[in-house]
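Hello Y.,

Per our agreement to keep a running log of every chain we model this quarter, I'm adding this entry. I've kept the format consistent with earlier entries: sequence first, then predicted structure.
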Amino acid sequence: MTLIVYTNPCDAPDAPANCQVSAAPGCGDGKVNQPKEECDDGNSLPGDGCSGICKIEPYYTCPTEGMPCVTTIICGDGKVGPTCSGTRAEPAPARM
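Predicted structure for the entry above:
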Protein backbone atom coordinates (compact mmCIF):
# COMPACT_ATOMS: atom_id res chain seq x y z
CA MET A 1 0.00 0.00 0.00
CA THR A 2 1.33 3.45 -0.92
CA LEU A 3 0.77 6.25 1.55
CA ILE A 4 0.21 9.66 -0.03
CA VAL A 5 0.83 12.64 2.22
CA TYR A 6 -0.77 15.92 1.19
CA THR A 7 1.01 19.10 2.25
CA ASN A 8 -2.25 20.93 1.64
CA PRO A 9 -5.12 18.97 3.23
CA CYS A 10 -7.56 20.59 0.81
CA ASP A 11 -5.85 18.68 -2.03
CA ALA A 12 -6.86 15.33 -0.53
CA PRO A 13 -9.53 13.44 -2.48
CA ASP A 14 -11.84 13.30 0.55
CA ALA A 15 -11.50 17.03 1.42
CA PRO A 16 -14.79 18.87 1.79
CA ALA A 17 -15.79 21.21 -1.06
CA ASN A 18 -15.52 24.27 1.21
CA CYS A 19 -12.05 23.33 2.54
CA GLN A 20 -9.80 26.30 3.34
CA VAL A 21 -6.32 26.40 4.79
CA SER A 22 -5.52 29.32 7.02
CA ALA A 23 -2.15 30.36 8.36
CA ALA A 24 -1.17 32.61 11.20
CA PRO A 25 -0.57 36.25 10.25
CA GLY A 26 2.95 36.94 9.09
CA CYS A 27 5.25 38.60 6.59
CA GLY A 28 4.25 37.69 3.06
CA ASP A 29 0.52 37.28 3.64
CA GLY A 30 -0.37 40.57 1.92
CA LYS A 31 -1.46 42.36 5.09
CA VAL A 32 0.47 44.65 7.41
CA ASN A 33 -0.63 42.86 10.57
CA GLN A 34 2.56 42.45 12.61
CA PRO A 35 4.24 45.15 14.71
CA LYS A 36 7.56 44.93 12.81
CA GLU A 37 6.06 45.02 9.30
CA GLU A 38 6.53 48.25 7.33
CA CYS A 39 5.01 46.73 4.19
CA ASP A 40 3.58 43.44 2.95
CA ASP A 41 3.24 42.90 -0.77
CA GLY A 42 2.06 39.31 -0.51
CA ASN A 43 5.41 37.57 -0.94
CA SER A 44 8.72 37.21 0.85
CA LEU A 45 11.01 37.99 -2.07
CA PRO A 46 13.50 40.84 -1.72
CA GLY A 47 14.26 43.30 -4.52
CA ASP A 48 10.69 44.32 -5.26
CA GLY A 49 10.47 47.18 -2.77
CA CYS A 50 9.30 45.17 0.22
CA SER A 51 12.04 42.94 1.62
CA GLY A 52 11.76 39.33 2.72
CA ILE A 53 11.31 40.59 6.29
CA CYS A 54 8.65 43.14 5.27
CA LYS A 55 10.80 46.26 5.48
CA ILE A 56 10.57 48.97 2.80
CA GLU A 57 13.68 48.82 0.62
CA PRO A 58 15.70 51.91 -0.38
CA TYR A 59 14.25 53.96 -3.26
CA TYR A 60 10.75 52.47 -2.90
CA THR A 61 7.43 53.38 -1.37
CA CYS A 62 4.65 50.91 -0.62
CA PRO A 63 1.41 52.88 -0.66
CA THR A 64 -1.11 50.03 -0.84
CA GLU A 65 -1.04 47.03 1.47
CA GLY A 66 -0.94 43.76 -0.45
CA MET A 67 0.04 45.44 -3.71
CA PRO A 68 3.46 45.84 -5.36
CA CYS A 69 5.68 48.63 -4.09
CA VAL A 70 6.72 51.41 -6.48
CA THR A 71 10.10 52.96 -7.10
CA THR A 72 10.73 56.54 -6.08
CA ILE A 73 13.49 56.95 -8.70
CA ILE A 74 12.53 59.32 -11.50
CA CYS A 75 15.30 59.65 -14.06
CA GLY A 76 15.62 63.18 -15.42
CA ASP A 77 14.51 64.92 -12.22
CA GLY A 78 17.96 66.43 -11.63
CA LYS A 79 18.85 64.04 -8.82
CA VAL A 80 21.66 61.54 -9.11
CA GLY A 81 20.60 58.11 -7.92
CA PRO A 82 21.57 54.48 -8.30
CA THR A 83 20.17 54.25 -11.83
CA CYS A 84 20.07 57.86 -13.06
CA SER A 85 22.70 60.36 -14.13
CA GLY A 86 20.78 63.39 -12.85
CA THR A 87 19.58 65.47 -15.79
CA ARG A 88 19.32 62.92 -18.56
CA ALA A 89 16.85 60.07 -18.52
CA GLU A 90 19.55 57.44 -18.93
CA PRO A 91 21.39 55.11 -16.59
CA ALA A 92 24.15 56.50 -14.44
CA PRO A 93 27.68 55.34 -15.22
CA ALA A 94 28.79 52.16 -13.48
CA ARG A 95 30.68 52.72 -10.25
CA MET A 96 34.01 50.98 -9.87
